[in-house]
Automatic annotation (TrEMBL):
Organism: Caulobacter segnis
A GO MF label: transferase activity
This protein's name: TIGR01244 family sulfur transferase
Keywords attached to this entry: Transferase
Xref: InterPro entries: BLH_phosphatase-like (IPR005939), Prot-tyrosine_phosphatase-like (IPR029021)
Annotated Pfam families: BLH_phosphatase
Domain Beta-lactamase hydrolase-like protein phosphatase-like per the UniProt entry, residue ranges: 3-110
NCBIfam families recorded: TIGR01244 family sulfur transferase
Amino acid sequence: MSDFRRVTDSFSVSPQVAEADMARAAAEGFVLVINNRPDGEDPDQPSSAAMEAAARAAGLDYLYAPVRGGPTPDQVEAVRAAVEAAKGAVLAFCRSGTRSIVTWSIGRTLAGEDRETLVNHGLQAGYDLSGVLPR
């Protein structure tokens, strides 16, 4: 079972989730799952197509926004727009959750959210964003 880590009331991140976790995500009130992990990073990870099918079967919306290394401006914008448009809580995942929270937090910074608040949200979820977010 995956470790869903609450960042805010409406956004959580997780290390790699399994297809079976989609029903749990729906039961916990998530409405959108964002997959930031590129297909093929690990031979044992489920494909984005399999994750999307499981998410949709559980009644969840799904966005595939794979990030290799640091997120591009287009990836940051895609995640920011999807989170803002979601009609409820969002769960984003990658291998460890780091790319997901970094991509989200850069988008929030660019939208004007306070850097220190975002760093604190990250720390509470187990991620250090202090070296990632612009000052």
